[in-house]
Amino acid sequence: MIDGPYLLLAALGVLGTGLMAGVFYGFSVLVMRGLAALPPAQGAATMNAINSSALAPAFMVVFFGVATVCAVIAVVTFVLWPDDGTVELLLGSALYLAGSFGVTVIANVPRNAQLLRLEPDGPEAAAYWPVYLREWTRWNHIRAAASALSAVVYLLALV
């Protein structure tokens, strides 16, 4: 069993990545389905408003904070190489940093930016909206799964 600073770091990792898994899962199974039921102009305008509100500190502090915790876990683990939990700590960090944070940067945020550039009432937005819903949600499923797996792997480091 891990101890010392690893115990606290792994516990923070479990809590943070688990929280983000819940946010992403809820978005996939509730919010995106609700938005898909709206007319394209309403759905696109609402998603733009949601994306704007996601830039508020309440979400950004948690999102970047969890990524920071995962990065710290990875660096400390790699540098100090503990006797127990090394693989779990490194894998948990990699899962979140690549599968959640990385996917956000390379897949979800560019789609958000493209949607924002379109006039919600315009024909381009109406044509893009179903594509956006399908692609954004698919990538969001990956973020949810990666975050959940990260939490499980961090939890395994604790036992």
TrEMBL record:
<feature type="transmembrane region" description="Helical">
    <location>
        <begin position="87"/>
        <end position="109"/>
    </location>
</feature>
<dbReference type="InterPro" id="IPR013901">
    <property type="entry name" value="Anthrone_oxy"/>
</dbReference>
<feature type="transmembrane region" description="Helical">
    <location>
        <begin position="53"/>
        <end position="81"/>
    </location>
</feature>
<protein>
    <submittedName>
        <fullName>DUF1772 domain-containing protein</fullName>
    </submittedName>
</protein>
<keyword id="KW-0812">Transmembrane</keyword>
<keyword id="KW-1133">Transmembrane helix</keyword>
<keyword id="KW-0472">Membrane</keyword>
<feature type="transmembrane region" description="Helical">
    <location>
        <begin position="6"/>
        <end position="32"/>
    </location>
</feature>
<dbReference type="Pfam" id="PF08592">
    <property type="entry name" value="Anthrone_oxy"/>
</dbReference>
